[in-house]
Amino acid sequence: MIFYEHAMLGGTLGLAVGVHCRHGWGIVATAAAAALPDWDAVSRLFGAETYSKVHRLWGHNALIAGSTGAACGLLGYLCHISTRVRGHVDRLLRKLEPRRYIGGGVPARFSITALAGWLIVGIVAGLSHLPADIIYGGGSAPAWPVKVFWPFSEREWVYPVFPWGDLGVTILFIGEMFALARWPRFGTLIAWVTLAAVAVYALTQKAFG
Ligand SMILES: [Zn+2]
Q: For residue 137, how far is its CA from the centre of ligand 1 (angstroms)?
């Protein structure tokens, strides 16, 4: 999986539990941003050896992926309750969708329950990156295991289902994106249909791939 699929998976998980109904689409965007532990790929700038040691390790463990996910959830929630940020987003969306956009409403007041919800969504989205990477690998190049509980454990996790570069899930997520743009009110249903399609595709890959 690359950035796009991870982001779509994080957002889809949020949509599936209906968080957008209570907190708006900002929390879906936050979940998408939280699912990106691939920040450790910037190690490529420091050479192939550093990249091979750092990528899929520093960001790809439950401790850091969960923490960065929580940080995204916190940042997303602060933006959600910020009058200034919401004003900027409103103006931008109104410019992009002058006929369809009906406004984002009044910024929510701070609530510890709502904050907890945003943090949980961020953490789950961040952690979703790890199993997704565990099932992607193999094919033309060897699988790249993930040390899920690093730095506490060196155990490596790998269970290749989709080969590197497989486009099946990418196409399903692209289809979901268009469906969401067309029928945003059915976000939860579209998310569940997409997750079911990904699961069926994974089963067929495992059985016949
Ligand atoms: Zn990754």
A: 11
